[in-house]
Amino acid sequence: MRKYVLKRIFLAIFTAFVILSVTFFLVKLLPFQAPVGQAIDYYRFYEEQVTQGYVVVFEAPNEAYGELLWTTAGTNVVQGGMTYYYYQRSIPEQYIEWLRNIFLRWEWGTSTSIQVNYDAISIIGDRLPVTISINIWSVLISVPTGIGLGIWAALKKNKPTDHIISTIVMVFISIPSFIIISLLIKWFAYDTGWLPSAWPSVNASLGRKISGYVIPVMALCFGSICGYCRFTRAELCEVLSSDYLLLARTKGLTRTQCITRHALRNAMVPIVPSILAEFIGLLSGSMILENLYNIRGIGSLFVSAINDRDYNVLMADMAMFTLISLFANVFLDISYGFIDPRIRMGAKNNA
User: Fold this and answer.
1) pLDDT at 68 over 90
2) What does the pLDDT read at residue 74?
3) CA distances to 35, 43, 77, 116, 318 from 40, in Å
4) What is the mean pLDDT of residues 174-178?
5) Sign, CA torsion 192/140/216/148
6) What mean pLDDT do residues 232-240 have?
7) Contact 295, 130 (CB under 8 A)
8) Pairing mode of beta strands 55-58, 82-88
9) What are the phi and psi torsion angles at 106 (to 5°)?
10) What is the edge-to-edge ordering of all strands in the sheet holding 77-79?
């Protein structure tokens, strides 16, 4: 087991390295976006780029070095009576410096537009708790609700209750989350005024902040509840019709004992790991919801970084999503061995 865990962690790290390396080269092929702000902001940013090894600076134009990255009209910065000219190094040279900055100094660069000259990884750290909290609340609500409805539908198989639940699930699982949140905003924010139409500001009251969670959490919950319900119903129906459960009934166990002692425990084996997989899906789905509800999370930050061409923030955000997804999948694979005893027995037999 230890060998398998180390192997999966190594593969996750290697995969993250490949993904981020490819993303770096693709980002560097895009047109560069100069920072916004005043001349002092320009100068600070360019000097930071020089420190990180991405550009070189001259006190006079140097056409022999290569293509001028920023024109003199856009980047002439006079500091202490001196005009500085900045040139971009080649992409392979920048890549080597990028790796050196990350592994030796944990330096991901500074923002060019979202928060000018502010550390990119600090921007991620400021916005990550909001995204995580919204997704955790949606999981805490959707998991018991979805599994409960799935159990209810399975126990009432082919009865009106099962048909009603299955129909509702089919309808809501077919509706995209961005349509659901748009309808929720219209009904509960604009039509009734019960809930805020956008994410509350930092200075809002506690009640306003709590009510701000309702719409995005509900929008994320609908799809998850339907997924858990359908999956639980299918697994439980299969277990209830199995031969070993019929044998348990013939030995004198009641229907309730068969369901609680055997059926539910066996049906939960594939369902429990799916909770973590669903959490990963919620992280990616929250990108659209955060933009629609103006939530200052890492999902909306990713879209803003693309639109504003803030490449340093984009790379840091991409790294965050990549690492969360890959290591969550590692944990998901490992969890199967703890949940399903047959996997542990198979591993011992192979050893």
Assistant:
1) no
2) 34
3) 11, 5, 8, 11, 29
4) 82
5) negative
6) 85
7) yes
8) antiparallel
9) 50, 50
10) 55-58, 82-88, 77-79
Give one word for 109, left, alpha or beta, with left for phi > 0 and alpha for psi -120 to 50: left
Q: Average pLDDT, whole number, for the chain?
A: 80
Of 28-37, 48-57, 244-253, give the lowest mean pLDDT range.
28-37
Angle at 301 between CA 13 and CA 102, to 5 degrees: 35
Tokens 């694979």 belong to residue: 333
Distance CA 257, CA 246 (A): 12
Confidence of residue 298 (pLDDT cuts 50, 70, 90): confident
Rounded to two decimals, the pTM is 0.76
Q: How far is CA 27 from CA 22, 67, 226, in A?
A: 9, 18, 37
Reduced 3-state DSSP string for the chain: CHHHHHHHHHHHHHHHHHHHHHHHHHHHCCCCCCCCCCHHHHHHHHHHHHHHCCEEEECCCCCCCCCCCCCHHHHCEEECCEEEEEEECCHHHHHHHHHHHHHHHCCCCECCCCCCCCEHHHHHHHHHHHHHHHHHHHHHHHHHHHHHHHHHHHHCCCCHHHHHHHHHHHHHHCCCHHHHHHHHHHHHHHHCCCCCCCCCCCCCCHHHHHHCCHHHHHHHHHHHHHHHHHHHHHHHHHHHCCHHHHHHHHCCCCHHHHHHHHHHHHHHHHHHHHHHHHHHHHHHHHHHHHHHCCCCCHHHHHHHHHHCCCHHHHHHHHHHHHHHHHHHHHHHHHHHHHHCHHHHHHHHHHC
Cβ atoms within 10 Å, residue 113: 18
Nearest to 198 by CA among 301, 209, 285: 209
Helices 160-173, 120-155: crossing angle, 10 deg rounding: 160
Tell me the residue length of the chain. 351
What is the share, in percent, of the chain residues with pLDDT greater than 90? Answer: 8
Give me 189's structure tokens: 């924010």
Write out pLDDT tens, residues 136-170: 888 889 889 998 999 899 888 889 998 999 999 88
In contact, 49 and 312? CB cutoff 8 Å: no
